[in-house]
Amino acid sequence: MKRLIIEPVRLDILAKEQMGTERDGAMEALLDANPGLAREGPFVVAPRFVEIPPTPEKPTVPTVNPWD
């Protein structure tokens, strides 16, 4: 989905607000969906349309309980 950015915003804040997190690959997905965005620095310059990708699924890590 495309969003119109009307005022400068930091990339991590944009990811947190639009995707729910800035971790677990969300920032990478945001940068992959918007070629050239990383070259502009940590802020999205307004006005600009930004493609917001789906939030990547968090990888599941198997855990072992040594007391079982």
Oligomeric category: single chain
Low-confidence stretches: none
Query: What profile does the largest beta sheet have?
Result: 2 strands, antiparallel
The total strand number stands at: 4
Tell the overall outline. Answer: elongated
List the helices and strands in order: EEHHEE
The N- to C-terminal Cα distance equals: 46 Å
Estimated helix fraction: 25-40%
Strand residue content = 15-25%
The tally of domains stands at: 1
How many helix segments? 2
- Mean pLDDT across all amino acids: 90
Helix-and-strand structural type:
alpha+beta
Strand order within the widest sheet? 1-4
C-alpha-based Rg, rounded: 15 Å
Task: Write up this protein.
The structure is a single chain. With 68 residues, this protein is of the alpha+beta class. The protein has one domain. It is 25% helix and 18% strand. The strands form two sheets. A two-stranded antiparallel ribbon has the order 1-4. Strands 2-3 form a two-stranded antiparallel ribbon. It starts with a strand and ends in a 17-residue tail after the last strand.
Structure described in brief:
The chain is an alpha+beta fold and 68 residues long.
